[in-house]
Amino acid sequence: MADPWQDCMEIGISVARQAGEVILEALKNQISVMSKSSPVDLVTETDQKVESMIISSIREKFPTHSFIGEESVAAGAASILTDNPTWIIDPIDGTTNFVHRFPFVAVSIGFAVNKQIEFGIIYSCVEDKMYTGKKGKGAFCNGEQLKVSGQEDITKSLILTEVGYKKNPDIAKTMFSNMERLVCIPVHGLSGPDTIVGTAAVNMCLVATGGADAYYHIGIHCWDMAAGAVIVAEAGGVVMDTNGGPFDLMSRRLITASSKAVGERIAKEIQAFPCGRDDGKD
User: What is the C-alpha to C-alpha distance for residues 280 and 268, in angstroms, rounded to an integer?
Assistant: First the structure.
């Protein structure tokens, strides 16, 4: 039986590579920076240009499909996931890195049908690494199959996370407290805040490669998670909510891990805080 979404994935990979070329060219030039919700919530003309290019290129091929894009939502578009084939796009995951020319910047494209992620594409363009994952078909980087570490012992794990600007100091304290609890288990290491990569998409890919054993985040968005979640799952990892329950793409919370044991131990240790949902549902 023919794969109904193979053409979509091939187009997505091609468009992601084109987007990466635009980003690499922009890195050579003056970067025009604006802020969104706070002075450190950054957006650039390249973010907007790349998202527009991705959506217009895909829409030309698949005019009936839906789109959720980070910059479109920032401009007022709805972030609602329906059963319709939906492309979930972060044009530059790691905008702060891009602004500072820190060499971890990724294009992230997830594709969902009936609210289930069918495939994910993450192109780490400075590294020229194309990560892909397709439901039931495995995960790959530049054609080589990926496999998580399989680590089941939290005390032997390297865990990734991120802590960006938080307007509410109580939330910031909770995030740092969560990190402290994990470090004191103890674990082999906890890389954060934003000290290694600064892009959720690439952090999840590092879990998929076995280079890290887990990545967790509260306050993330669906366009940050969609592609990476399927790549980790197809590399043999687990994806769950930070409360230990099933992963919900619109919840703004996730743990990706090398094993259920590591994921559940992280969920047991960390304390949640309110962050809202991408779809506005409570």
Answer: 26
* pLDDT < 50 positions in the chain: 193-195
Identity of residue 84: N
pLDDT 10s digits, 17-31: 999 999 999 999 878
Closest CA to 189 of 217, 149, 162, 159: 159
Residue written as token pair 């039986």: 1
Question: Is 264 in a helix, a strand, or coil?
Answer: helix
- Tens digit of pLDDT for each residue in 229-253? 999 999 999 999 999 999 999 999 9
CA–CA gap between residue 106 and residue 47 (Å, rounded): 11
CA angle in degrees (0–180, nearest 5) for 136-278-122:
40
How much is the pTM? 0.93
User: What does the block give as tokens for 65?
Assistant: 């499909």
Q: Which amino acid makes up residue 278?
A: D
Tokens 């674990």 belong to: 187
Write the single-letter amino acid at 261.
A
Going from the C-alpha of 257 to that of each of 20, 79, 268, the distances in angstroms are 27, 26, 14
Query: Which residues are known catalytic residues?
Result: 70, 90, 92-93, 95, 224
Dihedral sign computed on CA atoms, order 105, 62, 8, 200: positive
The structure tokens listed for 103 are: 């060499």
Contact yes or no for 43/69 (Cβ under 8 A): no
Q: At which residue do the structure tokens 């076995």 appear?
A: 210
CA-CA-CA-CA torsion sign (180, 185, 186, 187):
negative
What whole-number distance in Å separates Cα of residue 239 and Cα of residue 93? 19
Of the candidates 19, 199, 193, 216, the residue with the CA atom closest to the CA atom of residue 94: 199
